[in-house]
Specification:
alpha+beta, Dna Ligase, domain 1, five-stranded antiparallel beta sheet, 23% strand, globular
Length: 345
C-alpha cells in the first residue's frame, strides 16, 4: 500500500534548521562532532567539513571522519581506483578483470572489451558517488555511446579510465575500523514496490517523501528524469506503468546511495569470511586504519570463492550509510572512530 505522506510533504522548522546546518557543515563531520560533544570532548569547528577535537589532551584535526592518522597518501591511493585495485590483487583478493587506458584510446578500449567479453563497465578513475560509472554495456555500439557520455564529464580527455568485466551480483559496503568489521550494508539499487493502484512515478514520489525524513537519504532522492532510469525502461516499464500489488522493480543500474539506492543491513547474516576479506582489503593499503570496502557478491551469506564475488574499491571516507539504513538497525560509525583515536593517541 502506498504510504500516506501528506503530513510529511514539508520539513518542520527544526528539520529545516538542521538541513541548513548540515549544508554548511558536511554530514560526516557533523555526526563526528555530535558524538564527540556527547562524550564531553572539546570541539572547534573550522570549516563545513573540518573540526578540531581534543582527545587525550591533544588537539586533533578531522576532515569529515578522517583524523590525524589518516594520511593524504592513503586518500590518494584509495581515490585512484586503479592503484588501489593493484594493491588488492597483490594481497590475494579477487578483483574484476580490468585495464587502465586513456579515454581517447577507443581502439584499445574496444579490443579489451572484446577480450574479456561483454557486459563491461567503464568508470572514471577518481570521481565519486558513482558519477560517470556506466554499467551493463553489452555491445561495441553501446560502448562507444557511453564513452561519448563519459567524455562530457571529464574535462581532460587524455585522462585514463577503467574498463572492467561486469560482475553480476549485489553491491555491499563493509565498514572496518582497526581490524574489525562494524557494519555490512547492501547498497540496493533504486527501487519501488507496486500496490496495484499507483504509477511508478507516484511510487517514486512517495518513496522520496520517506527519504526526506532520513538525514542521509534526503540528499539522494530517486530521480524522475527518464534519461536516468534506463533499467526501468529496459524492463518494458515506464513512469506511467502501474505495478501489481507487491511487484518489486529496480529503476536504475547504479547501486549506490547517491543514485537513490537503499542501505539494507546485512551485518548479522553475512558469511564471516567476507568480513575477513574486508579487513584484508583495508590492510592492503599500508597505514590505512579504517574505511569502507565495496564487494559485489552473488550471495553474501555463503562462503566466498574466486567465482562468486569481487572486491571493487576501498573507500577512504565512506558515507554514513550504516548509520541511516533504509532497512535494519542503524550501526554507528562516529563512535568507533573516536574510540580508535582515544585508544591509539
Amino acid at each position: 500500500m502506498l504510504h500516506n505522506q501528506s503530513k510529511h510533504t514539508s520539513l518542520t522548522e527544526a528539520e529545516q534548521r538542521q538541513a541548513e546546518l548540515e549544508e554548511r557543515e558536511g554530514l560526516k563531520s557533523r555526526l563526528l562532532e555530535e558524538e564527540a560533544l556527547r562524550r564531553g570532548h572539546d570541539v572547534r569547528r573550522l570549516t563545513y567539513d573540518t573540526a578540531i577535537i581534543t582527545i587525550n589532551s591533544r588537539d586533533c584535526l578531522f576532515k569529515d571522519m578522517n583524523g590525524p592518522l589518516s594520511s593524504a597518501a592513503n586518500m590518494g591511493i584509495c581515490d585512484d581506483k586503479n592503484v588501489a585495485r593493484s594493491l588488492l590483487k597483490v594481497n590475494g583478493l579477487t578483483v574484476p578483470a580490468s585495464t587502465y587506458v586513456r579515454l581517447t584510446e577507443t581502439d584499445k578500449i574496444e579490443d579489451f572489451a572484446k577480450e574479456i567479453g561483454f557486459p563491461v563497465v567503464i568508470k572514471p578513475n577518481n570521481l565519486a558517488r558513482g558519477e560517470g560509472v556506466f554499467t551493463h554495456i553489452d555491445s561495441v555500439e553501446s560502448l562507444h555511446n557511453h564513452l561519448q557520455k563519459l567524455s562530457k564529464l571529464i574535462s581532460d580527455e587524455s585522462e585514463k579510465i577503467l574498463i572492467e568485466k561486469q560482475f553480476i551480483g549485489d553491491d555491499f559496503r563493509f565498514f572496518v575500523v582497526d581490524g574489525e568489521v562494524l557494519a555490512t550494508t547492501k547498497r540496493a539499487r533504486s527501487n519501488v514496490t507496486g500496490d496495484g493502484k499507483h504509477t511508478v512515478l507516484e511510487l517514486i514520489e512517495a518513496k522520496n517523501q520517506l527519504r526526506l525524513q532520513n538525514r542521509d537519504l534526503k540528499n539522494f532522492l530517486i530521480p524522475t528524469d527518464p534519461s536516468k532510469l534506463g533499467r526501468l525502461f529496459r524492463q518494458g516499464k515506464t513512469l506511467d506503468t502501474v505495478l501489481d500489488d507487491g511487484e518489486y522493480i529496480e529503476v536504475r543500474d547504479e547501486s549506490n546511495i547517491a543514485s537513490g539506492g537503499d542501505g539494507i543491513d546485512f551485518h548479522e547474516t553475512v558469511h564471516p569470511t567476507f568480513k575477513d576479506i574486508a579487513v584484508q582489503a583495508i590492510q592492503s593499503v599500508p597505514g590505512l586504519h579504517y574505511g569502507g570496502v565495496d564487494v559485489i557478491a552473488e550471495d553474501i551469506t555463503v562462503a566466498p570463492t574466486e567465482e562468486n564475488h569481487v572486491v571493487t574499491e576501498v573507500e577512504f571516507s565512506p558515507g554514513p550509510l550504516s548509520m541511516f539504513p533504509w532497512e535494519g538497525p542503524p550501526r554507528d560509525m562516529a563512535g568507533p572512530i573516536l574510540d580508535f583515536y582515544v585508544n591509539t593517541l
